[in-house]
Design brief:
The complex is a heterodimer of chains A (about 140) and B (about 120).
Chain A (H helix, E strand, L loop, with lengths): L3 E5 L6 E7 L5 H15 L3 H21 L7 E8 L3 E8 L23 H8 L2 E7 L2 E9 L2
Antiparallel strand pairs in A: 1-2, 2-3, 3-4, 4-6, 5-6
Helix pairs in contact in A: 1-2, 2-3
Chain B lengths: L3 E8 L7 E10 L4 H13 L4 E5 L3 E4 L1 H18 L2 E5 L3 H9 L7 E3 L2 H11 L1
Parallel strand pairs in B: 2-3, 2-4, 3-5, 5-6
Antiparallel strand pairs in B: 1-2
Helix pairs in contact in B: 1-2
Classes of the chains: A alpha+beta (about 140), B alpha/beta (about 120).
Chain lengths: ~140, ~120
């Protein structure tokens, strides 16, 4: 399976979508998609790296803990608004978030559980939406 | 495409001091971290007591690979009272280590020579 990118210039705000096979070999494609979208939006080098880093963590979580759709895909949608760039990573599983407080879930000696904490530190806003139909993580970077 | 490489540069027998060096570079993500884990386990099995993981060529390291490094600290300590040192120069990787609070768990150095010198004091 190959990743399928769709850009819909007709919608407002503009968004781009990447449907990825839920396989770890696809993470590089997710990072490239995120980095290029962030650069096109006008984020600086550090913010582009942080945006791509957080997207990589969210996609990793979706692959590890979530479920793909019936075709084996998870969906990465990046939306450009006037003040912020937001990436939504959607899978069809029901994820249970750990503690909301990053400090509380951040243990230097722990082997697991850093992904969400890193997302919260690197992004300006992280929202998690879980329903019976699936899980979506929204990652936003505000434009300075 | 993400490029990732890993190589065991020295695996010394315990009698020779048990110092091992592992170089890993490129983008170390969830696709690569099992291989990193495998190479570390191989070092410990071969008798490496003090392991230097040289990440000078790494441009990206995700949370799963950080978990592997943290796990290696415990594995080396439990197997033989050993230690882990990490060499890292890439600013973006250093930033991730910093915000992960990893410096509290793992000894970090800018060059392999610095790590070797520090190990000579420990070994």
């Amino acid at each position: 399976m190959k990743a399928q990118a769709v850009t819909d210039a007709q919608r407002s705000p503009p968004s781009s979508e990447l449907c990825l096979p839920a396989e770890c070999s696809q993470l590089a494609a997710a990072r490239t998609f995120a980095r290029q979208s962030a650069a096109a939006y006008g984020l600086d080098g550090d913010d582009c790296y942080e945006f791509a880093y957080a997207v990589n963590e969210a996609v990793t979580n979706a692959i590890r803990h979530g479920l793909p759709d019936e075709r084996g895909f998870i969906r990465v949608t990046i939306t450009a608004e006037a003040d912020r760039l937001t990436c939504a990573v959607r899978d069809w599983g029901t994820f249970t978030a750990p503690a909301e407080d990053p400090a509380a879930s951040f243990d230097a000696a722990a082997e697991h559980g850093r992904g969400l904490a890193l997302m919260r530190i690197l992004m300006d806003e992280v929202r998690l939406h879980t329903s019976s139909g699936g899980t979506t993580v929204y990652l936003s970077k505000v434009r300075c | 495409m993400s490029a990732f490489y890993i190589s065991d540069e020295t695996v010394n027998a315990p009698a020779a001091g048990g110092v091992g060096v592992l170089a890993a570079g490129g983008e170390i993500d969830y696709a690569a971290s099992p291989l990193l884990h495998e190479h570390i386990a191989r070092h410990i099995k071969a008798g490496t007591r003090h392991l230097i993981i040289d990440l000078s060529g790494a441009t990206f390291i995700d949370s799963t690979a950080i978990g592997v490094l943290v796990g290696a600290v415990g594995s080396l300590r439990e197997a033989c009272g050993g230690t882990l040192a990490v060499v890292c120069v890439h600013e973006n990787v250093l930033k991730i280590f910093e915000i992960s609070g990893l410096q509290a768990a793992i000894a970090m150095y800018r060059t392999r020579e610095e790590a070797m010198s520090a190990l000579a004091l420990v070994a």
